[in-house]
Task: inverse folding
């Protein structure tokens, strides 16, 4: 019987917290019926076109364009943020503003570079007007795109940056302070939570905690790779 990556990780004693048992209402397992079956057969280019033409929620009325995601389609690392802001809406790429510069610096600190073994996407593909928080119905409408992206990219590790991405992916309202520092799972993919770079720009004192999260993420991936080659 072939074990999932998560099971292999647990079997080797490398899974510090089996979070699925701790958090109620965690996201649907990978074998659940997809929320948007019409996306199931799409490749990345077709999915990008579906996001471009999407009218699944009202955000298409106010956005300039859908912001699909950017990076290496075979990446081990998937970074998931909240939603495009004004710069991303204008340029069509996630994390290109000030927060994006800090995200790039965070990636560089662990030897990563945008586009090389890293893919960057958001929970929402359209900008909420006035940078308001995303609404639950917008998340419900948009999450199937991210789910399909994850199916196609098959990252080895997801880093959820910020409260919103973490809580959306883990279907929980647990505060970010209690989600970070632990290993979680999203549809069978290990997931680490850290602070959003925009928050870190406002609260630089928490950069040390974000650094710990990135080290945990890097160690997790190394552990997985060691387990896979054993
Ligand atoms: N904040 C996000 O969460 N995503 C972006 O793409 C830009 C800012």
Result:
């Amino acid at each position: 019987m072939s074990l999932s990556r998560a099971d292999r990780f647990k079997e080797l004693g490398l899974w510090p917290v089996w979070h699925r048992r701790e958090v109620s209402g965690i996201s649907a397992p990978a074998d659940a019926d997809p929320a948007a079956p019409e996306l199931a057969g799409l490749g990345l280019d077709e999915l990008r076109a579906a996001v471009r033409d999407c009218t699944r929620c009202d955000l298409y009325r106010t956005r300039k364009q859908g912001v699909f995601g950017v990076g290496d389609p075979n990446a081990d690392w998937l970074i998931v943020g909240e939603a495009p802001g004004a710069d991303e809406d204008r340029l069509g790429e996630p994390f290109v503003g000030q927060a994006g510069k800090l995200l790039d610096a965070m990636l560089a600190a662990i030897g990563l570079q945008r586009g090389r073994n890293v893919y960057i996407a958001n929970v929402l593909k359209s900008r909420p007007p006035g940078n308001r928080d995303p609404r639950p119905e917008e998340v419900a409408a948009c999450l199937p795109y991210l789910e399909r992206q994850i199916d196609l990219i098959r990252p080895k590790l997801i880093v959820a940056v910020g409260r919103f991405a973490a809580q959306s992916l883990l279907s929980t309202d647990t505060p970010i302070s209690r989600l970070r520092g632990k290993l979680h799972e999203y549809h069978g993919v290990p997931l680490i939570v850290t602070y959003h770079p925009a928050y870190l720009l406002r609260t630089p004192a928490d950069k040390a905690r974000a650094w710990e999260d990135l080290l945990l993420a890097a160690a997790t991936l190394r552990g997985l790779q060691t387990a896979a080659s054993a």
Summary: Confidence is low (pLDDT under 50) at residues 8-32. Residues 207-229 form the longest helix (23 residues).
